[in-house]
């Protein structure tokens, strides 16, 4: 019941305007008023580990936004899409934890500790993660200490970059004629990839998705070719996936160096490797539609 | 601009109540009035291929709901969560395309053709898919004919079952100390799995996620053990993931038959295999929280 009441207030009233960039200030003020008089809101601390999706705020879930609106403190990093932090309560404290050159960056253990300290102090904390918190998000690590301390937390899944970029680029990750499985890896620095079992990745009818891999894409491609993947295997490199500035470069595995060099490597950044990439010729739609409702730029 | 106007009307007005189960009829009526006077809505046909997430309507994205509210026709199957179809416009035509014993089921080519026919006839069609349309959703197949026919379409990613179930079960799919990659497979009938490269799946520090695999879980587990995965590898079987009725059974790979037998195999159903499953001991939260705001049952 309290939950339904919250929905009613948050979406039935002027606070709904929180979602319109142009009227954001008014909207947040209205929501603050709602929250100020909200007796259902607990005062005990909690951390909401929230996947905010690949970038487009339109891909936030209702659950994500609701919890963002309840947080006293918002903790975010550079992988959280522009405009998403602004959807939190205006009076929420904002803590940027990195990682950008020149900024003070928190290291992982500092972030973990920060969450514990804030929750123990009675704060409701929205820890925003780009994509999904449990796919290369280190979300598990961030809440382990919280959990050990017996503090309250919730985990909100998000559209991980693989799903968002695939949909907006028109590349199905699985397809009966092309791929019966899909594997997600990261493009770590080569020295960290020494132990990777490249042979195992190179399975027929498997799509390989590489997160954060522009800098090492050439290395990754070379290892995959050595392990037996055809140099002519299609490869798509997607930058700023799901956003208006989305760029999709398509080539083959042996052109990886070229593709990566031409990329600005702006997140969300993702490489998709496999014959499914060819389907984009038919299925690309984003940035092309003009008359479909709801998609005007 | 038309997009912002739509948001304003849809979320600023009484139609926002579409989201509250208890006041659904009023809400849909209000939205219909908005749409009736909406001059920005196109009259040309289009198909919106929409991932509706693992089940909890709270995990719909804003984009998904907006397009659902614009559709004249809604096409759905049994993998779409209860209550989600009801969030479409009340006057939208609803077409159930299967697949349940006793019902007339459409086969895949009939569904593909239906989408083409409706869009060509000027209808805006919401094709709802459980989870994400490009992860084992056959979404690619469904829009290939549309695309070939030059018809308008959009693809909306959704929270795939792996992400939803993992978050709500407290099992990170990747984790620095446990898994550096994650692979998604389906639990097909054994005769369809003959070609599967089991050796390649059994990589150290890789989480294996099996979709729709209760019936074949024992078979899958036996093949993985034969291929070298330790019989003591942790296994979680998640039924009705993200829903209030969520059940998580945890055991080891060699107990797969037992776990599957005790399951009612109700979707979303997912098996997670790998040492990350152990983290659930610490990180389970759903169904336990009581005082955190926004999570009251």
Account of the 3D structure:
With 297 residues, chain A is an alpha/beta fold. Helices cover 30% and strands 18% of the residues of chain A. Chain A has ten helices and ten strands. In chain A, the strands form two sheets. In chain A, strands 3-2-4-1-5 form a five-stranded parallel β-sheet, sandwiched between helices. The first copy, chain A, has a five-stranded mixed β-sheet with strand order 6-7-10-8-9, with helices on both faces. In chain A, helix 4 packs across helix 5 and helix 8 runs antiparallel to helix 9. In chain A, 54% of the residues are buried. The C terminus of chain A is likely disordered. Chains A and B meet through helix 1, strand 1, helix 3, helix 5 and strand 5 of A and helix 1, strand 1, helix 3, helix 5 and strand 5 of B. Strand 6 of chain A pairs antiparallel with strand 6 of chain B.
Q: Count the strands of chain A?
A: 10
Approximate shape of chain A: elongated
As a percent range, the share of helical residues of chain A equals: 25-40%
Oligomer: homodimer
Helix-strand topology string of chain A: HHEHEEHEHEHEHEHEEHEH
Secondary-structure topology with pairs:
2 copies of one chain form a homodimer.
Chain A: H1 2-12, H2 24-36, E1 46-51, H3 62-70, E2 73-76, E3 93-96, H4 108-120, E4 124-129, H5 139-148, E5 152-156, H6 161-169, E6 181-186, H7 198-201, E7 206-211, H8 217-226, E8 234-239, E9 247-252, H9 256-262, E10 270-273, H10 280-283
Parallel strand pairs in A: 1-4, 1-5, 2-3, 2-4, 6-7
Antiparallel strand pairs in A: 7-10, 8-9, 8-10
Helix pairs in contact in A: 4-5, 8-9
């Amino acid at each position: 019941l309290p939950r339904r009441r919250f929905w009613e207030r948050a979406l039935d009233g002027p606070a709904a305007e929180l979602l319109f960039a142009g009227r954001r200030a008014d909207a947040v003020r209205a929501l603050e008023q709602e929250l100020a008089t909200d007796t259902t809101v607990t005062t005990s601390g909690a951390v909401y580990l929230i996947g905010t999706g690949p970038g487009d705020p339109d891909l936030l879930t209702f659950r994500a936004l609701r919890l963002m609106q309840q947080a006293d403190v918002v903790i975010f990093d550079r992988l959280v899409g522009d405009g998403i932090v602004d959807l939190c309560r205006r009076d929420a404290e904002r803590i940027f934890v990195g990682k950008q050159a020149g900024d003070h960056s928190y290291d992982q253990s500092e972030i973990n500790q920060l969450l514990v300290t804030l929750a123990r102090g009675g704060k409701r904390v929205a820890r925003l993660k780009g994509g999904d918190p449990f796919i290369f998000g280190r979300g598990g690590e961030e809440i382990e200490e919280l959990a050990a301390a017996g503090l309250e937390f919730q985990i909100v899944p998000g559209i991980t970059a693989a799903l968002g970029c695939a949909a907006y680029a028109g590349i199905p990750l699985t397809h009966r004629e092309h791929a019966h499985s899909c594997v997600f890896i990261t493009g770590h620095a080569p020295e960290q990839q020494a132990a990777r079992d490249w042979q195992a990745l190179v399975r027929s009818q498997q799509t390989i998705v590489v997160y954060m891999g522009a800098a090492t894409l050439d290395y990754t491609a070379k290892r995959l070719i050595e392990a037996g993947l055809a140099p002519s295997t299609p490869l798509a490199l997607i930058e700023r996936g799901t956003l208006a500035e989305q760029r999709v470069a398509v080539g083959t595995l042996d052109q990886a160096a070229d593709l990566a060099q031409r990329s600005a490597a702006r997140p969300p950044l993702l490489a998709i490797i496999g014959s499914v990439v060819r389907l984009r010729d038919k299925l690309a739609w984003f940035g092309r539609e003009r008359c479909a409702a709801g998609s005007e730029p």
